[in-house]
Specification:
With 180 residues, the chain is an alpha+beta fold. It has one domain: Nuclear Transport Factor 2, Chain: A. It has a 6-stranded mixed β-sheet. The mean pLDDT is 95. This is Ester cyclase. InterPro entries: Cyclase_SnoaL-like, NTF2-like_dom_sf. Pfam families: SnoaL.
Length: 180
């Protein structure tokens, strides 16, 4: 494990990153990386570089303008800070092909903030269950009302449309570690 001073510096950077995301201060958030790189494992998508990550921020904050985090735990590994947290938000805009439902979600997630040998943050790799989010977003819809039934249908069509994407090969072309 790295020395305590390195672990504390990594931790401070990650906490600043979380704080700046909630404030929607994208310049400050992006400054935590030399090259911004997000991997969303549930969706098997990668957002690489300043432009793609800013687009990701715009899309997610259009969908959830009140997005926030509740930290649960923070752990260290040899090359990462691992954060368990609740992600919260109310869907006020489209989430990809899924129309706004007005529903709120609180979803447990884990993010790996991966560092290189020079202590640069090189990736944020996020694990979560998409179905948990979707289930919460549609929970308040009334399928007995025409409006609720129409929105539910549009949500399902949108979710199916989004599920047909090819996974990013950077996430599927993996090699097992050498454990010998």
């Amino acid at each position: 494990m790295p020395p305590e001073s390195v672990l504390r510096a990594r931790e401070r950077l990650v906490l600043d990153h979380f704080r700046d995301e909630v404030r929607q201060n994208w310049d400050a958030t992006l400054s935590t990386f030399p090259h911004p790189h997000y991997e969303l494992i549930a969706q098997m998508t990668v957002h690489d570089g300043d432009g793609e990550v800013r687009d990701y921020y715009t899309d997610t904050r259009t969908a959830f303008p009140d997005q926030d985090h509740e930290l649960i735990a923070l752990r260290h590994s040899a090359d990462a800070v691992i954060v368990e947290f609740w992600l919260l938000g109310t869907q006020r805009g489209p989430l990809g092909s899924i129309p706004p439902t007005g529903g709120r979600h609180r979803t447990r997630m884990t993010a790996y903030f991966v560092f290189d040998e020079q202590e640069n943050l090189i990736a944020e790799r996020i694990y979560f269950d998409q179905l948990t989010i979707l289930r919460q977003l549609i929970a308040g819809l009334n399928p007995r009302s025409p409006k609720g039934l129409l929105t539910l249908g549009r949500v399902l069509v949108g979710a199916l449309r989004m599920s047909g994407r090819e996974p990013d090969p950077r996430l599927t072309a993996t090699s097992p570690p050498d454990l010998d």
